[in-house]
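ok new one. same drill as before - structure tokens go in, u give me an amino acid for every spot. 271 of them this time. try not to just spam alanines like last time pls lmao
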């Protein structure tokens, strides 16, 4: 089912969406698991994953909490979550902004790359905090899209300076498009202050990035994401079809590399 609300960019009915989610999981699951392990999550915990997507972390949580624990995984489109076979898992088609959620029910609530898409992100965060038991943990991961670094032309003699300049300029236009659609492109860096504002304690956070060569396995996330995002940017008049083609060529050029946007993870405890 498509989600046409302001803010969300990706179409769940897109033919390559499963491939995109799998590439995203491959690149980001190790850091996500590290953040979750920092909370001490283990057997018997009751967990909620908001926006379960492709389901890799839902599977991990189900195995981690064991038969005496439970996991509730939600999404607007649950087809990939429905494929998971786990006796301790409940899958819900659920809108975090519009649908009810239990209060003081979970030991752990997690979301990844969700809040950045929501114009009413504070409201969504507040509902997650309300869903926690006293002493429960919230773990949220989001991106700072503005932090992508294409490199210094003077230190990249084999790469035309024009290519780097094109990458920087087109990324800037993409950020304008994202903001116009209600996305918060720099939300990741603000997670710690949002956690404190929401009343959480023991707040910690970290950011991480990866150097990614064009055409590599790790570049699949960028290629598939930009394939869809640049189409929207053309429709918005921020890119021409020629711009779009140049941008997508950069992502598949094995001579071109960049640091990915910083991905931030934050975790904190409900008093």
């Amino acid at each position: 089912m498509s989600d046409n609300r302001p803010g969300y960019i990706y179409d769940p009915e897109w033919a390559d969406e499963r491939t995109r989610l799998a590439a995203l999981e491959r690149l980001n699951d190790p850091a996500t698991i590290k953040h979750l392990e920092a909370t001490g999550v283990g057997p018997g915990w009751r967990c909620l994953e908001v926006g379960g997507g492709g389901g890799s972390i839902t599977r991990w949580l189900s195995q981690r909490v064991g038969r005496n624990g439970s996991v509730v995984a939600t999404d607007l489109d649950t087809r990939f979550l429905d494929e998971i076979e786990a006796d301790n898992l409940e899958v819900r088609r659920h809108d975090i902004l519009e649908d009810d959620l239990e209060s003081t029910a979970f030991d752990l609530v997690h979301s990844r790359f969700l809040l950045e898409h929501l114009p009413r992100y504070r409201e969504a965060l507040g509902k997650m905090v309300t869903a926690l038991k006293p002493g429960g943990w919230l773990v949220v991961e989001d991106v700072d899209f503005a932090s992508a670094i294409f490199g210094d032309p003077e230190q990249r003699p084999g790469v035309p300076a024009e290519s780097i300049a094109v990458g920087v300029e087109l990324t800037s236009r993409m950020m304008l498009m994202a903001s116009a659609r209600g996305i918060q492109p720099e939300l990741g860096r603000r997670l710690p202050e949002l956690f404190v504002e929401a009343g959480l304690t023991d707040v910690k956070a970290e950011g991480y990035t990866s150097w990614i060569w064009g055409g590599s396995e790790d570049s699949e996330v960028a290629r598939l994401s930009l394939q869809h995002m640049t189409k929207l940017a053309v429709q918005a008049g921020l890119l021409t079809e020629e711009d779009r083609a140049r941008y997508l060529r950069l992502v598949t050029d094995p001579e071109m590399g960049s640091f990915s946007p910083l991905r931030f993870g934050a975790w904190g405890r409900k008093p």
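The radius of gyration is 19 Å. and btw The chain has seven helices and nine strands.
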